[in-house]
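Supplementary Methods. Inverse-folding protocol.

Structures were first reduced to a discrete structure-token string of length 353. This string, shown here, constituted the complete conditioning input.
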């Protein structure tokens, strides 16, 4: 497959209907949930004031911190070859791709394309994206058991009806997938990249998987070169990249807390309850791994209001808060990507000419 055909097939994934689909699903789910949960006086406890505006600005500020952390990380992984401007474009387009693809798929495969077209070689681009994914999953693998230890199993999974066993199964199922992914990448990066490549190539010779064998062979080759490069890194450089990862995810989780304060007041929840809400969000993001919808649309709104409704005065407020949460942490990337992508594509075509 030549490069031009590859570009075309990648960009076909961002057709208008694929951008509109998660919006329709998300807003449709929100309207259905609100109609189901609405009660008279639902918004009687909601406060709208200058204080509300300040905390709403802070919630967007949390997302900005999150993106800056991602930009810092990708610059570290590229050894400074990516400028801040290029890093910004990559992160925004990467988030856009994640927003229009199922949560289980994410925007990782397309991210290699974005990094490559910003001046990084194909092999290095694959390596950077693979290490980025590795660091994200490592954060979840470490912080989830720590949250359960500090907050308590019941604190994260208990609802008014008792322990929500369906949520428990989803969370631990998603966690096991993440840990398995980390173990495979760790083996490939740090122990035996050649052996992992041989195993993957052998597996993808099976009839049902043969169509992806060529791609897997390239990924295995890229993993070998990635291993050689990143194994030479110092511990301090790995620590910087992981700290940037932690900053990004922690800032993203505090968005919900700032929204609760914005609409219900700073004293509505105590410090312990804020950390429980934080822990619940961690479980929610792991559960969203199983969502088949683009960006987790519909599923995210449902899980949000079901998982956090005990911390809110009325269920209807939970639905409204879920919409606000998505307006801050999800829909902006659809808007930014829709604006940024056409100009970015024109620049690619201009460079080719």
């Amino acid at each position: 497959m030549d490069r031009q055909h590859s570009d075309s097939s990648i960009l076909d994934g961002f057709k208008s209907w694929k951008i509109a689909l998660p919006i329709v699903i998300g807003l449709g789910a929100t309207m259905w949930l609100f109609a189901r949960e609405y009660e008279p006086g639902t918004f009687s406890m909601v406060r709208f004031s200058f204080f509300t505006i300040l905390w709403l600005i802070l919630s967007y500020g949390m997302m900005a911190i999150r993106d800056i952390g991602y930009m810092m990380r990708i610059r570290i992984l590229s050894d400074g070859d990516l400028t801040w401007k290029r890093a910004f474009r990559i992160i925004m387009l990467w988030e856009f791709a994640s927003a229009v693809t199922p949560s289980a798929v994410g925007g990782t495969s397309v991210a290699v394309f974005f990094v490559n077209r910003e001046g990084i070689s194909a092999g290095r681009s694959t390596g950077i994206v693979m290490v980025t994914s590795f660091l994200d999953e490592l954060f979840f693998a470490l912080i989830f058991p720590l949250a359960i230890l500090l907050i308590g199993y019941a604190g994260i999974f208990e609802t008014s009806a008792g322990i929500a066993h369906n949520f428990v199964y989803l969370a631990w199922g998603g966690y096991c997938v993440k840990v398995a992914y980390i173990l495979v990448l760790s083996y490939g990066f740090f122990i035996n990249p050649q052996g992992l490549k041989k195993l993957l190539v052998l597996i993808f010779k099976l009839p049902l998987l043969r169509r992806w064998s060529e791609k897997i062979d390239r990924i295995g080759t890229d993993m070998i070169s990635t291993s050689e490069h990143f194994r030479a890194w110092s511990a301090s450089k790995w620590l910087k990249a992981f700290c940037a990862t932690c900053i990004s995810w922690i800032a993203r989780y505090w968005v919900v807390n700032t929204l609760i304060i914005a609409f219900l007041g700073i004293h509505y929840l105590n410090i312990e309850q804020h950390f429980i809400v934080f822990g619940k969000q961690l479980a929610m993001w792991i559960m969203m791994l199983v969502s088949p919808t683009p960006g987790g649309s519909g599923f995210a709104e449902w899980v949000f209001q079901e998982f956090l409704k005990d911390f809110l005065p009325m269920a209807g407020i939970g639905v409204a808060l879920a919409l606000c949460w998505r307006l801050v942490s999800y829909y902006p990337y659809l808007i930014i990507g829709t604006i940024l992508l056409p100009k970015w594509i024109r620049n690619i075509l201009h460079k080719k000419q």
